[in-house]
Amino acid sequence: MPELPDKRTAFMDWYLAVVESAGVTDKRYPVKGMNVWTPYGFRARRNLDAVMVREIEATGSQAVEFPTLIPSTEFAKEKEHIKGFDAEVYWVTRGGLSELDIPLVLRPTSETAMYPIFAIWVRSHRDLPLNVYQIVNTFRYETKTTRPFLRVREIHFFEEHTCQANEAHATDRVRSNLAAFERMAAAFALPYLPVRRPEWDKFPGAFYTVALDAPLGEARVLQLGSIHHYRENFSRPYEIRYEAADGSQQFVHQTTFGLSERLLGAILAVHGDAKGAVFPTAIAPHQVVVIPIPGSDVGDAPLRAAEEIAARLARHGVRVHLDGGDERPGAKYYRWEQAGVPLRLEVGRREAESRSATTVNRLGQKGRVAFDRLEHEVGERLAEFDRALAERARAEFVASFSVARSLEELAGSTTVRVVAWCGGEECGHRIETAVDGSLLGTPEAALPIDPGAPGPCVGCGSAADVRWALAGRPL
Amino acid sequence: MPELPDKRTAFMDWYLAVVESAGVTDKRYPVKGMNVWTPYGFRARRNLDAVMVREIEATGSQAVEFPTLIPSTEFAKEKEHIKGFDAEVYWVTRGGLSELDIPLVLRPTSETAMYPIFAIWVRSHRDLPLNVYQIVNTFRYETKTTRPFLRVREIHFFEEHTCQANEAHATDRVRSNLAAFERMAAAFALPYLPVRRPEWDKFPGAFYTVALDAPLGEARVLQLGSIHHYRENFSRPYEIRYEAADGSQQFVHQTTFGLSERLLGAILAVHGDAKGAVFPTAIAPHQVVVIPIPGSDVGDAPLRAAEEIAARLARHGVRVHLDGGDERPGAKYYRWEQAGVPLRLEVGRREAESRSATTVNRLGQKGRVAFDRLEHEVGERLAEFDRALAERARAEFVASFSVARSLEELAGSTTVRVVAWCGGEECGHRIETAVDGSLLGTPEAALPIDPGAPGPCVGCGSAADVRWALAGRPL
After folding, report:
1. How many other C-beta atoms can be found within 10 angstroms of the C-beta atom of residue A97?
2. ipTM of the complex
């Protein structure tokens, strides 16, 4: 059986091979960057979406859905925004056999679809806050090399859009989003750092952007999502106004929170290893696979015991898959390891007789579960697995950062670098040149390593206003 | 408060007013026929989707998702199909600032997106049956007048596509789909009749089409969805072949099953009445609304009792909404009746003291529930409501059909007509002219009225091969 490329030295080759061998997508669709969600991949996506829905609805956000197509006239209303997107959108110019009077854009994101309607929905301070989200597909005419889940042309997308009474409330909403993402990331076992992007790298039209960054080995960084404070930047052109309690007319302050299928890419990239994918139990399409081990002298006792186990676990709400096919057990182990199933239960003659099953989790830890305590013990094994997975990811996360004390030290970085920065754009660009990547911005949470107090700015040597910043190579 | 138009005499005006007052959609989006799913409407849709997912997955179908955009080259492969659609699709011709080499079609349905990939997925008889479905949005450049949920340009769509080993297996799949839809329709409390469409009205490319038809008063008929047997009509152009057990190469036989947001339109149209929408509990965004009735002498006892009720019902899995706003109770009753909530609980001073609540269901039936048996009794009231709703719909369904013994009797029909038909196309068109509508086809289940044995064909008078057929005016 073919070995995967080495994750450390050939990361992208390894990633593509893991995506392939896990069976989560089919890249053979005849449009570049538009892939097929296979049954197995779709289940992972559904679990991912369920976590997002649970956590965002816990904050009082409500699901909506706006149309996919945006008239070019609306799309053009917010100048900064269109400038950021007009080279990257798909245009619908024809309906049936005739040219459209007004071309339509396939939404790259939904500000310009939603905000004309928000202007109708929001009338009074009683209508605030307006917190709505949608999970839809968005489209980007991506000219760079596409990568499944990480950079695609049709994107499975989560976007929350909110209207708040004032800047402080919008700032609170950003915090609430950060807290919701922390809970999501715990379910995904994904370590990350919220990072406030520098001015020159914020979202088009935003007042500021907090990105959710995950290191992916070497100096690579993957932006998992982002949260934006728009202030009145969109509410003014779209005239989203309300009557305050004192009778005055005020523009709302807006925020957005965006996530995407890239999270699935991050889960594959962060947790995957030399054997293939590894899914945390919250996302795993199958949490448990049960494999009967036939033998010439045991008849169908293992198969029947495996069926009993699978039926009981399913009734208990576990996503369990019984692999009763006629391949040999070794081939099944191999396949379900590639596919990232957290826990395997093996049932042979010995297990059927002793009414217990051998367990092997995706990280290689072995154990046994007794049939009469099956549901409880499988639950424990899955919790153990999740803990071990989170610890492994955390250790790699911590090891992904190191301090650079000078521009020279940034050259050839093999970790994300923590650098002292004065906040100036010129110094920022010096850092970017030195690291051959980006100044990601300033962390909005505690760094995973303790670099002490920042020394002088590595760009200009100034000691005024210096803060720790992160530099790396965005994937 | 404004009265709704009369459902019987001004059906479409009434329907549009019900959609509006229920708050399920916003039609003010600046593209005709593309509407916004409001938070309330989206919840109804989510419940609808959950029923579809539950019932189709019970038959072994798996969720997938194929891209939204289809290259024109693939789209053109199946001649009958493209002939049926090429005047009704949206074309993406531009990506960013450049013309696309190969224009892309926004899927009107996904045969031409899926089948090139099915040709890769299906290799051997072991890969069959392949039963997959997706719930996605589809697009039609609709030139007729658009109506929320009933005829729109962006359609929330359910489509199952299957590959079977032979024609008989495909026929079995059609039957399995019919059984699944019967379970769905029970949850929606929607009476309908499966009707095999005449040759000239089948789906482009189909061998035959069974439509799921619901009468909507007068002679109007709404097609809720359809199930198609494709035989080898698509597998040949797309080369979806498998190696049979005997080593021979065979083309698969295919079926599809399509449903859409039109089901929500049907629920609104069939169950709605002079007060507005009426949702069956399986679909209702709120199944129960709890309304505290303040009084000058009771303090906050009603509100606190209402909060207790809402919290307990929510814990019990009931979709409950506490309306604690400061409008007067009558205004709240009115609004939630318009919105179609199945059951209202009123909690005033008397109720707080006696620890019981007054119940009024959306059909006007009143009762009481004791706090100490709250969960159980609310469950009973909801079940009663669903039964009464289904009975009302069933009675209207039965009254929607009548027999026509001659072409003359078809003129000015105020019901769906049951007519004797020889099966000939010429006679079919005579019937269509007489009814000023369509020959819907031949029922695939027992008629709701018993017309006895068919007499001679109303078109030609022939007594050979005569069967009952349905004629009416498709909405």
Report:
1. 11
2. 0.96
